[in-house]
Each structure stands twice: as C-alpha cells, then as structure tokens.
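Incident review: delayed structure delivery

Summary: a single-chain prediction request sat in the queue longer than the usual turnaround. Root cause was a stuck worker, restarted by the on-call engineer. No data loss occurred. The affected request and its eventual output are reproduced below so the record is complete for anyone auditing the incident later.

Affected input:
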Amino acid sequence: MFLFIDTTPPKGFDLTILDSRGKKNFHLVQKSFDLPSEKILPKIKRLLKSVHVSPSELGGIGVGTAGSFTALRTGVTIANTLGYVFNIPVVLTSRPGFNRALQEMKKAKTFKPIQPIYDRAPNITQSKKKYL
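Output delivered after worker restart:
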C-alpha cells in the first residue's frame, strides 16, 4: 500500500491510498481545515486504520508538488517524518503522476528525505501590524 498526500486544494487536503498495482483502494477527502498540521495526522491515522494498514506496512509516501507554501511544507514535513520513522521511501509527485511515483517508491526501497519544490518565488511583504 502507498499513501499520497495532496495539499493543493485551497481549503483542505486529499489523502489517497493505492495498492501496489496502482489501483485506488480508498480515497478520503477532507474539504476544510484551519491548521493542517493538527488535522492531517489524525486523518492519516484514521484512513490507515480504516483499511487495516499500519504506517510500517506502507511501501511509500507521495506528496503533491503544488499548493500553498504552508500546505506544501506541512505535507513534505509529515511525509519525511513518517518516512524517517518507518524507513519508507518518500517522493514528490504531480496528481496525475501516481504511476510514476509508485515506480520511484518501489525502486527506492528506503527513506531519503525530499524537499518541497515551489511553483513561484516567495512573496514576502511588510507586516500590516504596527509594533510599538
């Protein structure tokens, strides 16, 4: 089984579990959340439990390559943490690229950290709050 974390939706995330042939077994969509880091981990745990898979049984974790800065960082951090703890391959993938990502995970066999790839330069502006 393979877990895919997609943080591209503007107000939510998609979690997908695929079997080793690439056939979709179960798909959970959480449409809105305020603090992804507080909501996504319990959803991953619930999703894995619902299909009777422990994190150590995962063959790999894929993370979408688009989305907001914070959402992408959160997805990559969660994937890297789970990959490190359970020695699971982690890859970046585009949403329609599940098959390519599956092949990369099957070849990798062990954990190697990934870094997010941003689709644009940062837009850092001055704070609107006035500090005394």
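Verification: The beta strands are 2-6, 13-18, 24-30, 60-64, 90-93.
Action items: add queue-age alerting; document worker restart procedure.
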